[in-house]
Design a protein that fits this description.
The structure holds two protein chains of two kinds. Chain A is of the alpha/beta class. Chain A has two domains: 3-233 and 366-380, Rossmann fold, CATH 3.40.50; 261-348, formyl-coa transferase, domain 3 (2-Layer Sandwich), CATH 3.30.1540.10. The two termini of chain A are 29 Å apart. Chain A has helices at residues 37-48, 81-86, 102-111, 122-127, 132-138, 163-169, 192-215, 225-230, 236-243, 282-294, 309-314, 316-328, 332-341, 352-356, 359-363, and strands spanning 29-34, 52-57, 91-94, 115-119, 143-148, 220-224, 248-250, 253-256, 264-266, 272-274, 347-348, 368-372, 375-380, 386-387. Chain A is elongated, with a radius of gyration of 25 Å. In chain A, the strands form four sheets. A six-stranded parallel beta sheet of chain A has the order 3-2-1-4-5-6, sandwiched between helices. Chain A is built from 15 helices and 14 strands. By secondary structure, chain B is α/β, with parallel strands linked by helices. Chain B has two domains: 2-176 and 208-236 and 375-438, Rossmann fold, CATH 3.40.50; 278-369, formyl-coa transferase, domain 3 (2-Layer Sandwich). In chain B, 36% of the residues lie in helices and 12% in strands. Chain B has helices at residues 2-5, 42-52, 68-71, 95-101, 114-125, 138-141, 146-152, 177-184, 204-227, 237-243, 248-253, 297-306, 321-326, 328-339, 344-353, 364-369, 372-377, 418-425, 430-438; strands at residues 33-36, 56-61, 105-108, 129-132, 157-162, 231-236, 278-282, 289-293, 357-360, 380-383, 391-394, 398-400. In chain B, strand 10 and strand 11 form a beta hairpin. In chain B, helix 2 (42-52) crosses helix 9, helix 8 (177-184) crosses helix 10 (237-243) and helix 9 packs across helix 10. The chains are: A alpha/beta, B alpha/beta. At the A-B interface, helix 2, helix 6, helix 7, strand 6 and helix 8 of A face helix 4, helix 8, helix 9, strand 6 and helix 10 of B.
Chain lengths: 405, 442
């Protein structure tokens, strides 16, 4: 274990692992055939809570095994950090779809499985010789979750895709970018379209398991990545549904039908804090002015005239420029914690490097060290859901290709 | 809903419009009653999933503290920004509330009174799931601890949804989507190198935290149905956010490769796997764009053909992936010159016809008016609302073989189901309900 993996101070009342019940998904048998991160993330969430997840891989390994970055630069299927990230606590078996025994061997694995995750395009399903409806008919208790870019059938079901195009067609990308619209919309984060689909993968599988307890029957789930994105842009859809307005992207804050004031402020140490001032709320306004005044930086904002919303609204750009100076004269971390201490929703734009050392997450023992004697270790994000009655299993390193026979 | 309206007379005459009266629910969660203290975005979105799939979700509201989505200006025929609310808005007119609270029942209880809290306890006792997303400490102040809830319902499921979780030094930090995105690292990762992050143009983490909370509730319900054991659930949106950072997180923790470097973040370009072009290019029209990605040399050759084999594209430096990655600025200029002549959807069609990954950057109008997949799958659907009228809703992105959603009614008017919940479910007499109303308890 490396130096960053030592035990964090125990949290006072974190309600996880109180009782000794096994993981929430203990006893579930899952077979996963994933050619992308959507199915792999779904499988990881199941494995993280105790499901027995078997990845079925071709002899060359799942596609994510060839995507970097690689651990310590070792470019081979057993050192992809992309693969490691999405496949902790799973097992791996190699079955070759080109061999005549493929269907028989797969059926053997499915005979005792509760869930089959099939994450790839419909064309990939064809080339694997897999017909989901046929699998469902032959394994009536099996919950089959197909995750495809645009659904199993329909007008775009044969379309090619990747994370960037998923976010584009799904309506999320249009909301993300800069105030300067000569710059194109900017993809937010890595693989988030797959992550959105995976959360619906988990939800739909659980709905099907609950249904199966009542009926004894599994079912076929046709989950679309595109649709997962299209139901997730938060306010953009309701804006159009109700007012017919289309929102326009703004730098690191809500896309809106009409422009709003910037919410990012640069700090003395060259970092950024997020703070959206809502003028209509009196209490936060008073807290803000008190805070600024405590640093002798409130300027004329202490003038009682600012107690009225009308005056604040009439002088919004003046307020904004004083705020810019206020943040520019302090460090990001102090602004974050002092603002929050005063009840204001301020946040520093934290990097992944900083998140690893976050005092709060450490106190909650969120991160887990994952590694093996023959696999370089490091801290991984831990369980995002904490049950008092069920433990989340410590994550095991992602499997080597075909390590289970 | 027309289906409900055409039904037989309701046994609940206190609904003026019979189509608004509850009917037996269908779906995998039918028979499960939820005492839902959630409000705002995350909680309301999380429990909507339960209501969609058959649970009887009773949304507990407080007339003295109107749920924000009831107040936000999402009105038909009126364009206002998020922060630009009316001074005395009609709580039944808000579209965002309709969006979040469809299929739920609504009851008003003033939880700041002893009588109100006793009433809420009766409702909890008649339920088996309790959900909340207040700031940590609020439910405790009202006496609704997990221990107390277990006294009322031994196998209760108690879902606590918050920004930072129910322990730790930042437990009481104020949060909403953008704060969670900033604190978890998600905002940092999006943008062009050397300038402020572009981050997220919406509360991504409101939706994602909601989805994880829905999944947590389903996992707890599924387990309890087999073991009889309930659970408390603590989901911190920040932890969900960190768990979504992706492989870059391990590049930091395993490889020690810092994200504090001048070439990070990478805008629309990606490093893993190598792909070029990989970007968002202008299409015809004001501020319209198309996303396009090429992952190997064969795809590049097809792209060149689709573009009509322009001279610049034949240059040797673009023939192999490494060369295209090294010369992405020039590459992007050439592609932009071609895409800017084309309608985004038309470009998508011709590129896809050549087997290329391309998609018009669709906005919500495109999703509603153009997108043939949303239409084919019926992902957006319509329901009527007594004040708002017909409205579109975002449905479920999966077509379920047999456990599909059961959309029975748009969101409750404020206090619309008080008589049903207090009278029919809790068995209170009419004059008792009237007295509660007169005393301002409901």
């Amino acid at each position: 274990m490396d130096s960053t993996s030592g035990p964090a101070p125990a949290a006072a009342s974190t309600p996880h692992t109180i009782d000794a019940h096994p993981g929430a998904f203990g006893g579930l048998d899952v077979v996963e055939i994933s050619l992308d991160a959507a199915g792999e993330m779904t499988g990881r969430l199941l494995a993280q809570y105790g499901a027995n997840v078997l990845k079925v891989e071709p002899p060359e390994g799942s596609p994510t095994r060839s995507i970097g970055p690689f651990a310590h630069g070792e470019e081979d299927p057993d050192h992809s950090l992309t693969f490691w990230y999405y496949n902790t606590s799973k097992r791996s078996v190699v079955l070759d779809p080109r061999q005549p025994t493929w269907h028989e061997e797969l059926d053997g694995r499915l005979a005792t499985a509760d869930i089959l995750i099939l994450s790839c395009s419909p064309a990939d399903l064809d080339s694997l010789g897999l017909d989901p409806a046929d699998l469902a008919a032959r394994h009536p208790r099996l919950v089959i979750c197909t995750i495809t870019p645009y659904g199993l059938d329909g007008p775009w079901s044969h379309y090619q895709s990747c994370d960037l195009t998923n976010l584009a067609s799904g309506g999320v990308l249009a909301s993300c970018g800069y105030d300067d619209h000569s710059i194109p919309p900017i993809r937010p984060g890595d693989n988030q379209s797959f992550h959105m689909a995976a959360s619906f993968g988990l939800i739909s599988v659980l709905l099907a398991l609950i249904q199966r307890d009542a009926t004894g029957k599994g079912q076929l789930i046709d989950l679309s990545i595109h649709d997962s994105v299209a139901v997730s842009p938060e306010l953009a859809n309701p804006y159009y549904f109700y007012s017919g307005a289309v929102v326009h992207r703004q730098t690191c804050r809500h896309a809106q039908p009409v422009p709003t004031q910037p919410a990012l402020f640069e700090t003395r140490d060259g970092r950024w804090v997020y703070f959206a001032l809502i003028l209509a709320d009196t209490k936060p306004w008073q807290s803000l002015v008190e805070w600024m005044d405590s640093m002798d930086l409130a300027a004329d904002l202490i003038d009682p005239a600012y107690q009225t919303l009308d005056h604040r609204q009439a002088n919004f750009s003046h307020i904004q420029s004083i705020l810019e100076v206020f943040f520019l004269l302090q460090d990001a971390q102090s602004a974050y914690h002092e603002g929050q201490r005063r009840g204001l929703p301020v946040a520093v734009i934290s990097s992944p490097d900083e998140v690893v050392h976050d005092e709060h997450l450490r106190a909650r023992e969120f991160f887990e060290y994952v590694g093996a004697p023959d696999q370089p270790g490091g801290l991984y994000p831990g369980a995002p859901i904490r049950f008092s009655a069920y433990r989340s299993e410590p994550q095991r390193p992602a499997p080597r290709l075909g390590e289970d026979r | 809903m027309s289906e409900a309206r055409s039904g037989v007379d309701t046994p609940f005459p206190f609904y003026g419009d019979a189509s608004r009266a509850p009917r037996p629910r269908r779906g995998p969660l039918a028979g499960i009653r939820v005492a839902d203290f959630c409000w705002m975005g995350v909680g309301s979105c999380a429990t909507r999933l339960l209501a969609d799939f058959g649970a009887e979700v009773i949304k507990i509201e407080d007339r003295t503290r109107i749920d924000m989505p009831r107040r936000l200006p999402f009105y038909k025929g009126e364009v206002r920004s998020y922060g630009d609310e009316m001074t005395d808005p009609d709580p039944d007119k808000g579209g965002l509330f309709n969006n979040y609270s469809r299929n739920k029942l609504g009851v008003t209880i003033n939880l700041r009174t002893d009588e109100g809290r006793r009433l809420a306890e009766r409702l909890i006792s008649a339920s088996s799931v309790v959900t909340e997303n207040f700031a940590p400490g609020v439910m405790e102040r009202w006496g609704f601890t997990y221990d107390r809830l277990r006294e009322l319902v031994p196998s209760v499921i108690y879902a606590r949804m918050s920004g930072f979780g129910h322990s730790g030094p930042y437990e009481h930090y104020r949060s909403y989507g953008p704060v969670v995105q900033a604190a978890s690292g998600l905002s940092y990762m999006a943008g062009l190198a050397g300038r402020e992050p572009s981050g997220w143009g919406f509360s991504y983490m409101d939706n994602m935290a909601a989805y994880y909370n829905s999944a947590a509730l389903l996992a707890a319900i599924w387990n309890r149905s087999r073991t009889g054991v309930g659970t408390e659930i603590d989901v911190a949106a920040v932890e969900v956010g960190v768990s979504l950072l992706g492989p870059v997180f391990l590049d930091v923790t395993v490889n020690g490769h810092s994200t504090h470097r001048p070439d990070y973040p990478t805008g629309n370009r990606i490093e893993h796997p190598a792909a070029a072009p990989h970007g968002v290019y202008p299409s015809a029209g004001a501020d319209r764009w198309i996303a396009l990605a090429v992952f190997d040399d064969d795809e590049w050759e097809r792209l060149v053909t689709v573009m009509g084999s322009p001279t610049w594209a034949a240059e040797d430096r673009f023939a192999r992936m490494a060369g295209r990655v090294a010369h992405q600025d020039d590459l992007d200029r050439g592609i932009s010159a071609w895409t800017s002549q084309l309608d985004g959807h038309e470009a998508m069609r011709v590129l896809q016809a050549a087997g290329l990954r391309a998609a018009a950057v669709q906005n919500s109008r495109d999703l509603c008016e153009v997108d043939p997949v949303i239409r084919h799958r019926g992902t957006f659907f319509e329901m009527d609302h007594p004040v708002i009228g017909a409205a579109l809703f975002e449905g479920f992105p999966a077509l379920m073989g047999s456990a599909g959603p059961d959309h029975w009614r748009s969101a409750p008017l404020l206090g619309e189901d008080n008589e049903y919940v207090l009278g029919t479910i809790l068995g209170m007499e009419r004059d008792e309900i009237d007295q509660l109303s007169a005393r301002g308890v409901i």
